[in-house]
Amino acid sequence: MAAPKQPQARMSPSDIETYASYVKGVDPARYYDSQAREFWLAAKARWPLLADVLYPDQPPAAER
Q1: Distance between CA atoms of 17 and 33, rounded to whole angstroms?
Q2: How far apart, in whole angstroms, are the C-alpha atoms of residue 3 and residue 21?
Q3: How far is CA 11 from CA 18, 29, 33, in A?
Q4: Lowest mean pLDDT among 8-12, 15-19, 30-34, 55-59
Q5: Is the pLDDT of residue 46 over 90?
Q6: CB 24 within 8 A of CB 45
Q7: Could you tell me if residue 50 is left (phi over 0), alpha (psi between -120 and 50 degrees) or otherwise beta?
Q8: Distances (CA, A) of 45 to 13, 52, 57
Q9: I need a labelling partner for 24 at 20 to 30 A (CA). Which of 15, 18, 39, 55 fits?
């Protein structure tokens, strides 16, 4: 395995970006990050009013 391109690879925001730093030719923009989606859904459940204000095009938290 090659050394990561970034000196602080452990601080990468997602597993996909970390993997791409180790493997040549991997484009992180081509992969879906389910981890980020899970964090986003958990935040919407924890702070429904804030989610309603920041994302007005989504259904209200009470209807989810």
Answers
A1: 10
A2: 8
A3: 8, 18, 16
A4: 8-12
A5: yes
A6: no
A7: alpha
A8: 21, 11, 16
A9: 39
CA 32 – CA 14 distance, rounded (Å): 11
Helix (H, G, I), strand (E, B) or coil at 24: coil
The pTM for the full model equals 0.45
Which pair of tokens denotes residue 7? Answer: 């000196």
Determine the residue type at 41: L
Tokens of 49: 């009013």
Q: Which candidate, 35, 34, 27, places its Cα nearest to that of 19? A: 27
DSSP letter for 45, please: H
Q: Residue 1, SS3?
A: coil
Q: Which two tokens stand for residue 18?
A: 């970390």
How far, CA to CA in Å, does 43 sit from each of 4, 58, 61? 30, 14, 11
